[in-house]
Amino acid sequence: MARLSIIVAPDPRLKIISKPVETVDDRVRALMDDMLETMYMAPGVGLSAVQAGVPERIIVIDVAKDPDPPAPVRLVNPEIIWQADEIALAEEGCLSLPEYYADVERPAAVEVRYLDENGETRTIKAEGLLSTVLQHEMDHLEGILFVDHLSAIKRGIILRKLVKAKRLQAAGE
Ligand code: NI
What we know:
Layout: H1 26-41, E1 46-48, E2 58-61, E3 73-83, E4 87-92, E5 102-107, E6 109-115, E7 121-127, H2 128-141, H3 152-172
């Protein structure tokens, strides 16, 4: 396994619409393992392949909390097949927007169909944190970041600060 580098916003690579995976093979499984390792080290609860520079419809999630054992979920070509009418407000962060958090409104529950790491079709019904993370990661596959759900003013503040941080980092290197 290898750690991947995570692209930090603003970056045009995060706006790419990810392509469907044709075959869930060893390449895809190895990528998902690398994504999980990268996510756990960050640490984070979800990661999409596009955040590692691979614009394919692959996400990994683990919302288990200590002391529970890890519960990684690997999803290929996920699709929302049902969503609740109720809206839930939850605080979100993103490994591509380090250190920024904001409340985002989304459907309170979703059902998602996907291929697992063996290429088998599965469905998962989720509410609470798992629902939020699923929708957040699936947004990445469309080139959407959680700040895109905020007002232009809030989004602008966060993105300008990230640009400034990148400049400072580049100057320090
Ligand atoms: Ni994210």
